[in-house]
Design a protein that fits this description.
Elements: H1 4-31, E1 40-43, E2 48-51, H2 53-71
Antiparallel strand pairs: 1-2
């Protein structure tokens, strides 16, 4: 028989992580991430292309620094 308390704890952790990531996306949008000068945005009559190059580079650097900090 599965341990229902462990399953409930896992669901709470997953829900908390989803809420945290949602909050980060909300805050990053307020800070202007996703609309940086290095982001590629092309809009034509019936075509839109968006590639957040500068945003991805900045997030990659931040995540690399955080993961290296917590790993040591």
């Amino acid at each position: 028989m599965p341990n229902i308390e462990a399953f409930g704890r896992l669901l709470l952790i997953i829900g908390g992580l989803i809420a945290f990531v949602g909050l980060l996306f909300f805050l990053f949008g307020r800070l202007g991430l996703g609309r940086l000068p290095g982001d590629i945005f092309i809009q034509r009559e019936n075509f839109t292309f968006y590639f957040p190059l500068a945003t991805m580079i900045i997030l990659s650097i931040i995540l690399t620094l955080l993961l290296n900090f917590f790993r040591r």
